[in-house]
Specification:
The N and C termini lie far apart (32 Å). This protein has one domain. The chain contains 2 helices and no strands. The longest helix is centred in the N-terminal third of the chain and has 13 residues. The chain is mainly α and 32 residues long.
Length: 32
C-alpha cells in the first residue's frame, strides 16, 4: 500500500494537470 501511495503522490505532483493551477503541475508551480 505504501509503495502504491508513493507512486500516486509522485504522479499527482509531477504529471497530473490541475485545473485550479491553470492546468499546470504542482511541481511546475513550486519551481517556477
Amino acid at each position: 500500500l505504501h509503495n502504491g501511495m508513493s507512486e500516486y503522490f509522485d504522479f499527482y505532483n509531477t504529471e497530473r494537470l490541475h485545473q485550479s493551477l491553470d492546468y499546470r503541475t504542482p511541481q511546475a508551480i513550486h519551481f517556477a
